[in-house]
Amino acid sequence: MKLKNDNSETEKARIIEINEGDTIEFISEPGPLAGKERSEKETSKSKEEITQEDRSQGHTEGGQEICEAEAERTQEKVDPREEEIKKLKARLQKKETEVKNLRKEKEEWKDKYLRALAEMDNARKRLEREKEEFARFALSEFLKDLLSVVDNLERALETRDETDGRPFQEGVAMIYRQLLDLLRKQGVKPIERQDNKFDPNIHQALISEEAEGIEEPEVAEVLQKGYFLHDRLLRPALVKVFVPRKNQ
Q: What's the rounded Cα separation, in Å, for the pair 113 and 110?
């Protein structure tokens, strides 16, 4: 084993070589130069630590400013959820408007439907009335012609000759009654003369004659009977009328 002393400016070391070149290094106490160098290193290290601390502090302050700026930018940014909520609210409002319009349209169509139903019901009732009236008055022309036969029978009865004999008179009277009964079954009835007042709705004046002591036209004589078919005028009565004298 060999011992080797290695003196340098920083420190003294003893190296013991063992066996095949392996060495063990023993660090001896530092010398005066080593102490000075260590002091300078410590001073430099302190300065570096102070510088690093300043840098760290500056970095911290800068980072804080950056964080604050980032926070401000984050606040300035719109939250995606809020934007989605706004969109959903807008869509909801649009749908509510559409529903409101549809309800209004529904009410309008409902009103039109009810009106159409009412009109159809009125039309049906009107057609039924017209059908009934047609059935009741379909034979109007035939019955009017038949009344002419009745008129002739009445005249025959009024102007009969006493020499014709009673059997003929009774036969004509029987035919007359049968015709009246047939007409009555069909809804034909004569206009009954209630008073002498002239009514242009049921009377037709063939002859007019001035008379004293009257203020309105009056029926003087019925020349031909008038008839109703149910509640409708079938034929007006032909009459002679007295009218007020002009200079009375």
A: 5
